[in-house]
Amino acid sequence: MMLDLRAIADFPARVTLEDDASRLDLAASGLAVSGMARVEMDIVRSDNVYYCTGTVECAGRLDCSRCLEPYPVTIRGEIDFSIIETAGGAGFDREAIADTTVVVPVGASSVDITDPVREAILLELPLKPLCRESCRGLCPYCGINRNEQQCNCTMETTDPRWDGLRDLWK
Ligand SMILES: [Zn+2]
Ligand SMILES: [Zn+2]
Description:
Number of strands: 7
Distance between the termini: 44 Å
Radius of gyration: 23 Å
Strand order of the largest sheet: 2-3-4-5-6
Oligomer: single chain
Bound molecules: zinc ion
Number of helices: 3
Largest sheet: 5 strands, mixed
Order of helices and strands: EEEEEEEHHH
Number of domains: 2
């Protein structure tokens, strides 16, 4: 996702950006995005530093951690990063700057803000995605989706060694 700083005449500024969400490279996160990612942010300038705060929103699907079925989600993340324009040189130390900060050469027009936007979305992804709070998951014995069908496995099981496991699935 690209931001064109030169197109902004006055600061502070509010900008809205849209880009194909698949360009945010989120596949490894388990989120299968669809459509556009939309960024709305305020940019405050102080000399060669641009402070960006706002939100990013994108839609997609996650796989439920209990029943393994995909379900639709809208993810809304908080944007909070800086862009630093620098000519480099002896006084400049990249290590001293936060990883989320985007560093660009002085006068750069297009700034790639893909990384901080991706981070904002990743922070909002649930560790254990659930299609719904009450998802009943898969039967541990026969594997059917208990949201859709019923089985008699639990009732038929009398072996006490399974009790602990059965409790986990209640
Ligand atoms: Zn589920
Ligand atoms: Zn079953």
